[in-house]
Amino acid sequence: MIDFLREGGIDTETFDNRGAKTLKDLFIEIQSREVDLMLRLHEQKMRPARFAKSSKVLIRTKAECLVETHRIYPNGLRVEKTIGGTNGSLPSRWTVSETATKDETPLQTILRGLWQELKFDLMSPKELLRVPPHTLFDVHESSVYPGLLTVNLTTWFEWLIKERFGDDTMVIEDYGVFNHLAWIPY
User: Fold this and answer.
1) Calpha distance 164→63 (Å, rounded)
2) Which is deepest, 11, 55, 100, 160, by most CB within 10 Å?
3) Contact, 73 vs 144, CB < 8 A?
4) pLDDT tens-digit map of 87-120
5) Cα–Cα distance, 14 to 26 (Å, whole number)
């Protein structure tokens, strides 16, 4: 993995000091999740890319939705979650985003994410609706691994609930990462 990253122009000597996650984190992701490293043509140059399968869910009422606004990582790095990348103006339209583990379906991924992050255990997964387009590719600069592209194959879901829960803003800890959520108009 180190040789692959170096050959792709990634400075592995300073990697752990520049991003929210370390080389060890990347190695663990590759071993335990639906994550691979590959080369991808990006702006007429071959670049190392992290390919991941993930699921996202938006929890909403008829009038409001609960969105992730930003994350704060153990090293203090703050990553904004916005539409259109870091220059966007509105929070991303998801509540929970989870990377799939090996051999996990998108539905299993989001059910695990809802439990791990919000302690929700859905009795009936039929409450989750897939949102068109159900699955899409997203290519962007990684917000947590410096110099890597991220290629996500994401399956989207919505969960329509009768009334909102919690405060206007909430902070959820997920393995040392603090996810900040806020209710906004739908």
Assistant:
1) 10
2) 55
3) yes
4) 444 456 789 989 999 889 999 999 999 998 888 8
5) 15
